[in-house]
Design a protein that fits this description.
Helix content: 25-40%
Shape: globular
Bound molecules: zinc ion
Number of strands: 9
Order of helices and strands: HHEEEHHHHEEEEEE
């Protein structure tokens, strides 16, 4: 499947082509992470034969996914320019983040409140980490409601979900093209299509 097509399922569609070009241009290994991390994303500089690596969590809403992706690419760009000489979220990184956010502002991709929160974040010299609360809160507002419908392939392993008929399952490993799922009451095994739509009840990895 085409890279931009995949990116479009996670990012605002208008943002996907440029992120696709960055992945090529910076020769970056870009991974959509299915692990639930406390961090939204991660950047690793080239190390022992491996190139730039970025991973972004799969379960972010499209705006949070884009802001996180640009955040990590700003780390990459800052690394290319300064290596160890620049602090992770120092002035060099901030300048690059601002610059790299610009094309998405020009395309008018963000709703006004997110744009406002990003601008505030970029112009506040004290805001130095990824976890700026105003920005975080404005991004969280666009998360889908917790009980919304998702496809089986997007669920983390061991997630508990419900079908329309009320039966409850736990998601297990993938067997060839389908996912093994166990009906909680009967303990019987069923195979689900990756795109079957279900309602998530609880994420066991999340405690
Ligand atoms: Zn960071």
């Amino acid at each position: 499947m085409d890279k931009v097509k995949i990116l479009e399922t996670y990012l605002p569609a208008d943002a996907a082509p440029l992120i696709g070009r960055w992945i090529d241009y910076f020769k970056c290994e870009f991974k959509i992470s299915r692990n639930r991390n406390t961090k939204f994303g991660d950047y690793r500089p080239p190390h022992s034969g491996k190139g730039h690596r970025i991973s972004v969590n799969y379960d972010l809403n499209p705006y949070a996914f884009l802001v996180t992706t640009v955040h990590e690419f700003a780390h990459l760009h800052t690394w290319n320019e300064h290596q160890h000489k620049a602090k992770p979220h120092g002035t060099e990184w901030k300048l690059n983040f601002k610059k790299m956010m610009q094309p998405f502002f020009e395309k008018d991709i963000f709703p006004a409140d997110i744009k406002h929160a990003i601008t505030g974040y970029l112009n506040n010299p004290a805001a130095s980490s990824c976890s700026d609360l105003t920005l975080y809160r404005s991004l969280r507002k666009y998360d889908a409601p917790k009980d919304s419908v998702v496809t089986v392939e997007k669920l983390p392993l061991k997630a508990i979900f419900k079908l329309k008929d009320g039966r409850i399952f736990s998601k297990e490993e993938k067997l060839r093209k389908r996912y093994k799922c166990i009906e909680v009451n009967s303990k019987r095994v069923y195979l689900f299509s990756p795109v079957a739509e279900v309602e998530i009840i609880e994420n066991q990895n999340n405690g």
